[in-house]
Amino acid sequence: MKKYFTPLLVLTLLLSIPAKNYAQVSIIQRDSKISDMINKISAANLESYVRKMVSFKTRHTLSTRGDAEKGIGAACNWVRSEFEKIGSESGGRLSVILDSVYLEPDGRRIARKTLLTNVMAALKGSDPDDKRIFIVGGHLDSRNGETNDSVGLAPGANDDASGVAAVLELARVMSAVKFPATIIFVAFSGEEQGLNGSAFLAKKAKTENWNLIAMLNNDMIGNSYSNETLLKDNMQVRVFSEAIPVNETDAMKNIRQSTNAENDGASRQLARYIKEIGERYVDRIEVKLIYRNDRYLRGGDHTPFNREGFTAVRFCEMNENYNYQHQNVRIENGVNYGDLPEYVDYEYARKITSINLAVLSNLALAPRAPESVGILVSGLTNSTTLRWKTPAGKIPKGYFILMRETFQPMWEKKIFTEKNEITLPYSKDNYFFAVQSVDEDGHESLPVWPVPVR
User: Fold this and answer.
1) 369 and which of 268, 299, 353, 445 could share a cystine (Cβ 3.0–4.6 Å)?
2) Over the stretch 244-286, which tens digit does the pLDDT of each residue have?
3) Distance of alpha carbon 155 from alpha carbon 329, whole angstroms
4) How far apart (Å, rounded) are the C-alpha atoms in residues 38 and 15?
5) 3-state secondary structure of 288
6) Does residue 330 fall inside a structural domain?
7) Domain boundaries, position 271
8) Are residues 111 and 232 in the same domain?
9) Are strands 421-424 and 132-139 parallel, antiparallel or unpaired?
10) What's the total number of domains in the chain?
11) Residue 220 CB coordination number (10 Å)
């Protein structure tokens, strides 16, 4: 049987050996195909994409659509052309979609009837029976200090040309590889006007019953220097995730309360997965899990997907610089203001883009998650029995049982089994558990929280 080693298992082994008898070791198992893709992510390409988007002067959602060199229309056409260029080299796997809707005036941020366009590229899965979909996105639109200024200079280099640059680079690299599931790359519009583009797509995904497994939102991933606190940090990235699902039903609430799953919603499980996989594949960066949906009283393009009941999170730089965010370009009292490309740390953006690639690739290559995962409660016992069903599609090599003490934020142990039931000598009173599928190459599905069964 193939042996699986993870950093969690290695740490457990090391802690059980007296310090004087070992030298510290770290065993990390990486899929070489995924590592090869990560090595193709280019900081220079990210910078080129960002500078091109800045050249459109403004990408405000209400800006001109008739000018070939400036405004949101020109920006949308350029992103489409980049996706088409990538698609022409993908063997027909990548197809480009312009998904549009008219926004009606709302008396606040939509001053007039406005055409909104999400520029999308779908990397169709190679398995016709695999209906899983993964979305990665950033928002194309920009703004300056005035929310409704649709003509003033609004370069939006970091907010959020950095996120769209990541999406383009991911499409370029990943479209050369076949994945059984479908990956959709999206440049959203209308984010600054109220998350309009993402709300439009999330509602469509809900209405059309997409099997959307995860949505990754990249919004401001290029700034590594904060104003006020003067922190410089390109070695940490925040991942925001909701705890209790915003669309929680009464049935979901009953299960959450009875199993104490306040910190184990689907988006929180995705965030933990991102930390483990991201740090496994990308060196010199730490994923910091932020236990809230977004920054304090703020939101992003993952939020509408959460509202529709989907699993979605946000990547965001560790420290924001408010001199460069939502500011008119100027020099005031010797201080530079404005979201310009020279203030973006492209190596930092490369690392965050690489984490996205590692996560998307592992999820899209992995077997589907186990089904009907349950924890037996037919009697009082100090052991714990878990039971589940084999998922449809590719048969997993086996399953990881994830385990942690109730006060721990991350999974502490991973126990491998090829069976569909396991009894562990750990009390469900003192530990939390989850189950995930894994294939021969170590690609893991998202963990599934068990529900009580008799």
Assistant:
1) 445
2) 999 899 999 999 999 999 999 999 999 999 999 999 999 999 9
3) 8
4) 32
5) strand
6) yes
7) 32-365
8) yes
9) unpaired
10) 2
11) 28
